[in-house]
Write a structure and sequence with these properties.
8 helices; binds 3-(4-hydroxy-3-methoxyphenyl)-2-propenoic acid; 280 residues; alpha/beta; Rossmann fold; globular
């Protein structure tokens, strides 16, 4: 599928990034102070009802990672200034409760635990803080979640655990780790069955959510995400794959030559931005 690529453009109508401070709790109920970066589009006004995209960093990252490592801010500024889509808010949280310790090899089980626990934080602490502070639609129809790498893993867990809160999903260069690390590739059958059954048993149908997945042909996550998406395509009662962004609820874009980096992966957010919240 052809991908419309973002290039840096000077824009006068630039959004602003604010720091939202909020409190979450650890396993013992002890309060933990955290922050998320909140991108407010140019012309943001109280009293409107903005959709919100939650965009999650990768393993070892933090709420600044997307903004520091990619041109996501300019990509959003350009998209809104040129009216590719209606302006939406983008929230960049951190999924760790404490600064991550990652020396050498990735501890897949530890990482899995962090992104799984973050689902509860989203529901209990972060989403209420965002909806309480900003002019949002405050409804699943106007709420999306996406992320890079472990942030993509986070996105699949949001599909499983928080489907009542989100209707739009952008898993980028990350597969579903319900059945352990790299499970979308290693345990494809079980993973897809679970994704299907979890949504179906809660009563959700194909019209109730949309998945915009993406990665690069040289991305280390491509061999794990691709088999999962390919298998999902067969579950046509729930997942309706389409090359066209105007149809279906499952989309997949593999960017030719792109490795596992924010610098490349943000292009998927730009590519999908026109259809995320403005249904064609
Ligand atoms: C993948 C999903 C996530 C993957 C790697 C990650 C190798 C995360 C890696 C990290 O946190 O360093 O499919 O494939």
């Amino acid at each position: 599928m052809g991908m419309e690529l973002h290039q840096y453009h000077d824009v006068n109508r630039r959004g602003t990034v604010e720091r939202l401070e909020y409190t979450t709790r650890d396993g013992d109920g002890k309060a933990i102070a955290k922050y998320a970066n909140v991108y407010l589009p140019f012309g943001y006004e109280d009293g409107k009802d903005y959709s919100v995209l939650y965009l999650i960093h990768g393993g070892g990252g933090n709420p600044d990672a997307w903004l520091d490592c990619s041109m996501i801010k300019n990509a959003l500024d350009v998209s809104f200034a040129t009216e590719r889509c209606r302006p939406f808010i983008t929230v960049f949280p951190g999924f760790y409760r404490h600064d991550p310790v990652r020396n050498g090899r990735v501890d897949e089980e530890a990482e899995r635990g962090h992104v799984l626990r973050f689902q509860e934080e989203l529901r209990r602490d972060l989403i209420p803080a965002v909806d309480g502070c900003y002019a949002t639609r405050a409804a699943r129809e106007g709420r999306g979640i996406g992320g890079f790498s472990m942030g993509g893993v986070t996105t699949w867990f949001a599909f499983l655990e928080n489907l009542d809160l989100f209707s739009v999903f952008l898993p980028l260069s990350g597969d579903c780790w319900q059945f352990g690390g790299l499970g979308g590739g290693k345990e494809t059958e079980k993973t897809v069955r679970y994704l299907h059954d979890r949504a179906a048993e809660q009563g959700y149908g194909s019209g109730d959510f949309r998945i915009f997945a993406g990665t690069g042909s040289e991305d280390i996550a491509c061999p794990n995400l691709t088999p999962q998406i390919e298998r999902m395509k067969q579950e046509t009662d729930l997942f309706q794959f389409s090359e066209s962004l105007e149809e279906g609820n499952l989309h997949y874009t593999v960017m030719e030559g792109a490795p596992h980096t924010y610098e490349k992966v943000y292009q998927h957010v730009y590519h999908y931005a026109p259809v995320l919240f403005d249904r064609p």
